Amino acid sequence: MLVDSPPEQCADTAPAPPTRRAVRALGLLVSVVILLLVALASIAIGAKQLSMGEVWHGLFHNSGTYGDVVVSERLSRTVLGLLAGAALGLSGAVLQALTRNPLADPGLLGINAGASAAVVTAITFFGVTSLSGYVWFAFFGAAAVGALVWFLGGSRGATPVRLALAGTAISAALYGYLQAVMISDDAALGRMRFWTVGSLSSASDSTIVQVLPFLAAGTLLALALARPLNAMAMGDDTAKALGAHLNRTRALSMLSATVLSGAATAACGPIVFVGLMVPHAVRSFTGPDLRWILPYATLLSPVLLLGSDVIGRVVARPAELQVGIVTALIGGPVFIFLVRRRRTAQL
After folding, report:
1. Which among 256, 324, 258 is positioned nearest to 290, based on CA atoms?
2. How far is residue 234 from each of residues 15, 66, 325, measured CA to CA in Å?
3. If we measure between CA atoms, which residue out of 1, 95, 13, 2 comes closest to residue 287?
């Protein structure tokens, strides 16, 4: 199994010098500012362009004007994007640490596809229509596919490429199943045709309220696992010597990733590559210490998701390109670059 630079990991998980900690802390503040700006852009930009004055008025002085109504509708979409982006970024970072696989991602490993297949099954064959009902199907589908990919990839002997190939194969099969179900059921096609490509367009206050407890629980669990996952990055023997409980950490890590990606997929549909790209980007700045990677991923993954959503609204005006399509278009070349870079490094 490939591990990224173990000696460097051992060094970087030690306490950082004060100057480096200060730079990382400043980076977190900058990330918060960037996230706020992108969130404002998500509210202001769409089929109808709004000024910052109109956005401010709609947020704090809603009087029922057209602009205020638009702000209210986009606010739910933006909040869901913030929550789903953070969930996908965190789950990707946790999966990469758990599998020691730099190419791990809920979409790439088929976890999102498993959640999607379970949700479509619940809606089409069991008549489940509410998010609170099919979110449990999403969790089951995500967990089942995650376990299957891990088994087919070689379990403890899995390599990044084998896991990616297993995830890709299972995803292809599950998406074929999704298409077959929707084509054979016109009602299902009408309900699911936007959801299956990943979209924030159906966001509502009720959706946010229903997924928020799951996302909050998954986020807290992921952040609490930073230290034991850091210890496991040094190897199982070293981790045991440091007092880490390996089986418990693996089980809780998989539970956290499943809850986060399952809830996000249930609310927005399958959105790929967010959990792959952002942890890679922040790792080049923070180093491999998950105590910094996880907070950065929590802040910057929504930047990517909301930014992609804004791009989708702009490039296809007056219609819009679904956010799942935009992240796939961005993430595909990034994934190819990462695979080629790793192969070059191994020659």
Report:
1. 256
2. 15, 57, 37
3. 13
Q: Using CA atoms, how far apart are residues 291 and 28, in angstroms rounded to an integer?
A: 12
Tell which residue, 184, 231, 194, 160, has the closest CA to residue 13.
231
Residue pair 170/149 in contact by the 8 Å Cβ criterion? yes
Query: What pTM, to 2 d.p., does this model score?
Result: 0.86
Give the count of beta carbons closer than 10 Å to the beta carbon of residue 266. 30
**Tokens representing 1?**
């199994």
In angstroms, rounded to a whole number, what is the distance separating the alpha carbons of residues 239 and 139? 29
Sign of the Cα pseudo-torsion (148, 153, 157, 158, in order)? negative
What does R_g of the chain's alpha carbons equal in angstroms? 20
pLDDT per position in the chain (347 positions), as tens? 344 444 344 444 555 677 888 999 999 999 999 999 999 999 999 878 888 888 888 888 777 777 777 888 899 999 999 999 999 999 999 999 988 877 788 988 889 899 989 988 888 888 887 888 888 999 999 989 988 988 887 666 666 677 778 888 999 999 899 888 878 877 666 667 667 778 898 888 998 999 999 999 999 999 999 999 999 888 878 888 888 888 889 889 989 999 999 999 989 988 989 999 999 889 888 988 999 999 999 999 999 999 999 999 999 888 889 999 999 999 888 878 877 776 544 44
Q: Which has the closest alpha carbon to 78: 52, 43, 108?
A: 43
Inter-residue contact 132 to 285 (CB < 8 Å) = no
